[in-house]
Design goal:
InterPro entries: Homeodomain-like_sf, HTH-type_TetR-like_transc_reg, HTH_TetR, Repressor_TetR_C, Tet_transcr_reg_TetR-rel_C_sf. This protein has 232 residues and is an all-alpha fold. The chain is built from eleven helices and no strands. The protein has two domains: 20-75, Orthogonal Bundle (Arc Repressor Mutant, subunit A); 82-231, Tetracycline Repressor, domain 2, CATH 1.10.357.10.
């Protein structure tokens, strides 16, 4: 039986001639162009030049394909916690926070799969907790209680994830919702002289940028340092 021709004039690949790895790699290529939300099985089939049934042979639903993509991300990207020393805990935590945020903000698909969609239990809770035992131990050695150390690390983790997600959602907006012209009309020097006197501050309200990220991160680290000082 002749293999049916594809819509672009080439002969479509036969069922079974494509592997799971090719499908997953192709899914990343399509998602890079149209996003995770807009990725569809028919679109992926056209990209791979196969019939859509060849995709469904391996992945019955889009969620199963996204699970496979998530597993690939967890294998390919380094989500480990940097080793933190008690005597250098603040700088180490700061570097770790910036590294993780950069990984998510520089890779929209990673952000969509891991943070927005969620890992659906991957990695498991125990391995995830095992990864943060070392930084918690370092903070305890620096003078914090176990609860204070865990709360500090958890707060930094929430900051990293929420900042990356908010920046990702803001990047999806086709047009700037709050252009400079908007703020020029809103910032009344007579009604709000202090805010209006600070260059650029009004333009960044609610923005998940580096300055806001560092301000919150420093606040968390300052609080942790106060725990260490009091108990020391």
């Amino acid at each position: 039986m002749a293999t049916p021709a594809s819509t672009n004039g080439r002969r479509r690949r036969e069922r079974g001639s494509i592997s799971v790895d090719e499908i997953v790699r192709g899914a990343f290529e399509v998602a890079d162009e149209v996003s995770i939300d807009n990725l569809s099985m028919p679109q992926l089939a056209r990209h791979l030049d196969v019939g859509v049934t060849s995709i469904y042979w391996y992945f019955r639903r889009k969620d199963e394909l996204l699970d496979a993509m998530t597993e690939r991300v967890l294998l390919d990207y380094d989500f480990s916690v940097l080793s933190i020393e008690a005597g250098n805990w603040r700088e180490s935590l700061r570097a770790h926070a910036h590294r993780m945020r950069k990984m998510f903000t520089n890779n929209p698909i990673v952000c969509d799969l891991i943070l927005i969609r969620g890992t659906r239990g991957m990695p498991a809770a125990r391995p995830a907790l095992e990864k943060i035992e070392q930084p918690v131990a370092a903070l305890v050695a620096a003078g914090l209680t176990a609860k204070q150390a865990l709360d500090t690390y958890t707060a930094i983790s929430v900051l990293v994830r929420s900042s990356a997600v908010l920046q990702r959602l803001q990047s999806r907006t086709a047009d700037d919702q709050f252009p400079r012209e908007y703020w020029e009309q809103v910032l009344d020097a007579e009604a709000m002289p202090l805010i209006a006197s600070i260059p650029g501050r009004g333009y960044r309200i609610g923005m998940a940028d580096d300055i806001n990220f560092d301000h919150i991160l420093d606040s968390i680290l300052d609080r942790a340092a106060s725990f260490a000082t009091v108990q020391g």
